[in-house]
Every structure is written in C-alpha cells, then in structure tokens.
Design brief:
Helix content is 24%, strand content 22%. It is of the alpha+beta class. The structure holds FE2/S2 (inorganic) cluster and fe (ii) ion (FE2).
C-alpha cells in the first residue's frame, strides 16, 4: 500500500466540485429545485427489536468495519481481541508481518484461543486441552492425537475473518463474501490516501459509553445543522455551517465539507505541528468530515487525523471509540500539544453527545413518531436509505412500515448535484 500513487485527478476533480458546492450552499435561498420533502424516518427504527435484529444481521455482520491501526500490532505475534460485533475476533500479526483475523474459537470444543485483550505470542495455545495453532491459524499440534479417529488437522485451522487494510488502517468483516475493502471504499480511497493512512503513526485511542441506540449518535455526526446551537461557543465561532457541501456516494459513504467563517483562519491547536504535504488545498483550508459507511466518522486535518467509530452494545446503548493518528513526530514521546488537542476535541465530542440519552428516552416515548429531516440533513436520509438497501439485499424480514422510501438517488454523486 505504501507505494500506492495518489490519484491527483480524482482528488482535484472532487475539490473543484466541493468549491462549487460550498459557494452554491452559501448563496441559496432554499433547497435546490426538485429537492423532495423527505418522508419521516419512522421512530421504530430506533427501538423495534425486529428492526434492530435485521440491522444487526444485514449491516453490522456484513460491513467492512475499522478495527485497529497496524502500529497497535507492531511486532510478529502481537495480537488483540476485538469484540465490537459480538463474536470475539482475534487479530494477530504473523511471522511474515501480515495482519490476519480469526474467530477466537478453538476448533476442538470452542474454548477461547487467547484470553487477554492484547498481548504477544509465538504460537496460539488453547488453555483447555492444549491444541496449538501457529500465527496463521493452522493447527500444529494436539495432545493424544491417536485418540481422534480420522482427524485431518488441515481442516481444523481457526476460522478466518476477512481482514484488509487501507494503509495501516485495519478493517475486518464477518461477511466472508464481502467485496475487497478498496472496492467497498470506492471513491473514498483517493480522498483518504492524501492523508497518508500508510504512513501516519498511531497516537492513542479511548472510548466511552452512551445510553442511546447507535443510530441516534450516528445521525448527530452527519449534519452541521446543530452547529449554531450546541457548538455555539466552540466550532460555530470559526466554521460557516451555511456553506456545508455534501457528497453522497454508493455503499452509503458520504462527505461533508464546511468552509471557515474567515478565509485564512487556521486552527491554533495545530500550529507548530508537522503537516502532511500530500493534503491538497480544499481539505487543507476547509473542514472535511467523512462517513465510511456505516460507522466511521473522520474529520481529517493535514496535521493529524481522528477516526471515530460507533458500536451498538445493546438496543439502547452504544460505545464511541476515538482513535488518533499523526504524521511521524520523530523520536521520543508525542509533542505535548497533542494532549491539549485531544482534550479539546473531546470537549466538542461531549457537546455532540450530550442530548443522545434524552433523545433515546424520546424514541421510547409516545411523544416520538419519527425524525423529520431538512435538505441540510439529507445525509442522514442517505445513511438510512443504505441501511434499507442492505436489509433488502440480505433478505432479512422487517416490519415494512419501518422501511423508508428511496429518495436520494438523483442527489448522489454522479447524478445531479445542486451546484451543477
Ligand atoms: S477446546 Fe481448545 S483444546 Fe479443547
Ligand atoms: Fe457536532
């Protein structure tokens, strides 16, 4: 991946569209001609057990999902246990340097192959009866093999989980048939590559739990309509949310790009930090926010990139994980200013999350019928539309009244854009 060339044509073509779209958004008097009144998102999509089960099967068990950064598994034998989609998954770097994923389930009787959340191992020895696997998941040894009739050891490797990388960003999918990661990411790849996912270093990660359905929190990160209220004293002071441009792509991916209020404004928290020289003008001086469908949000900056991931932990609980990456800062610890930077970002995150438990209570109240979305919030509709497309593709049964009508097709990238 490190020798992957930047597709500057694709990057610049999008940059031009974003500039036109931001100009258009600032100047418009209402939604563009022909933009439809969006049907309400039915409230039951946040609470109905049958809908949540369908979402679990069709979305969480079948998507490419960000798992970790390759630096977290720096040496052969480094492993971590990853449980964000329920079944425990072991992600491990092999002797050959390749990072692989397996179900952490011994092929004898299902005991866990590793017990710790992270560690380093030369081989994988099940603690129950001692079956031993190599770092590629192959069964090497077992006690009293003579007592297993016709055992073909080559058929008892750990069950692999799809695991692929964009640079050092490691993604997993529990769908063995899913398309390759880079195909799934599609038009996001050239845009993300300018932020050097192949070279950036891992800084740190942390997470916190929120008492709401995961979609309540996802919705909150897909629009800038809320900026003037909940970020009045922070983000709203420097970004101009009236100018937010939106790109909607296949597979549910999308992007927002918001101009600053004052041209030439620079985030003081990033002054003095090393900046990546591959980041082009538009993302350098505006504010991007990607959604890698379904649950990854990233507002990248030339001086460092956060990835937020959102995980359902129950019908009305979820977890946010926040991962940070930086251009190489050389030897020694990460520059002190990074601690302030991450703390400031968390303060804004808190603003974003503060209403979620109360919105969750509303979704469970007779006072809540559904979610009404404006033109500015069309990215949320796009997100839900993709969920329904996947539920239908997976053939999972759901209450029909909880599905939404596809509306955003003509407003996708490649189709009509308001600015064109
Ligand atoms: S369950 Fe793993 S060795 Fe028996
Ligand atoms: Fe926000």
């Amino acid at each position: 991946m490190s020798n992957m060339q930047l597709d500057l044509d694709a990057i610049e073509a999008l940059n031009r569209r974003l500039i036109r779209a931001m100009d258009y958004e600032k100047g418009r008097g209402g939604p563009p001609d022909g933009f439809p009144a969006l049907p309400e998102i039915p409230g039951g999509r946040y609470t109905d057990p049958a809908f949540l089960e369908a979402e679990w099967q069709a979305l969480w068990k079948r998507s490419w999902l960000y798992a970790c950064h390759a630096d977290e598994l720096a040496n052969p034998g480094d492993y971590m246990l990853w449980k964000n989609t329920g079944s425990p998954i072991l992600i491990v770097r092999g002797e050959d340097g390749v990072i692989r994923a397996f179900y952490n389930t011994c092929r004898h009787r299902g005991a866990p192959v590793v017990m710790d959340d992270a560690g380093n191992a030369r081989g994988l020895v099940c603690s129950y009866h001692g079956w031993t696997y190599n770092l590629q998941g192959e069964l090497l040894n077992l006690r009293d093999r003579r007592d297993f009739v016709d055992l073909d050891m080559s058929c008892r490797s750990l069950i692999p989980v799809r695991c692929e990388q964009l640079g050092k960003w490691v993604f997993v999918s529990e769908d063995p048939e899913i398309e390759p990661l880079l195909d799934y990411l599609g038009p996001l790849v050239p845009q993300l590559m300018q932020f050097q996912p192949d070279r950036m270093r891992f800084v740190e990660k942390h997470g916190f739990d929120i008492a709401c359905n995961v979609k309540v929190m996802m919705d909150a990160f897909l629009e800038t309509y809320h900026v003037k209220s909940i970020h009045q004293h922070t983000v709203d002071r420097f970004i101009d949310s009236r100018g937010t441009a939106i790109m909607l792509w296949d597979n549910g991916h999308s992007l927002m790009c918001t101009p600053n209020r004052r041209e030439g404004w620079r985030d003081p928290g990033t002054v003095g930090l090393k900046h990546m020289d591959t980041v082009t003008d538009v993302p350098r001086i505006h504010n991007l926010s990607f959604n890698v469908y379904p649950n990854l949000i990233s507002p990248p900056h030339a001086s460092g990139v956060p990835i937020l991931t959102f995980w359902p932990t129950g019908p009305n609980t979820m977890r946010v994980e926040c991962h940070w990456f930086s251009p190489d800062w050389g030897d020694g610890p990460i520059p002190e200013v990074w601690h302030t930077r991450i703390a400031n970002f968390d303060r804004i995150l808190f603003e974003d999350t503060q209403f979620a438990p109360f919105i969750q209570q509303s979704t469970e109240s007779p006072g809540f019928e559904g979610v009404l979305l404006s033109y500015q919030e069309r990215r949320i509709y796009h997100w839900h539309e993709e969920l329904d497309r996947r539920i239908r593709a997976a053939g999972v049964a759901v209450p029909e009244e909880l599905m939404i009508e596809p509306m955003m097709g003509p407003w996708r990238d490649g189709a009509k854009q308001p600015a064109e």
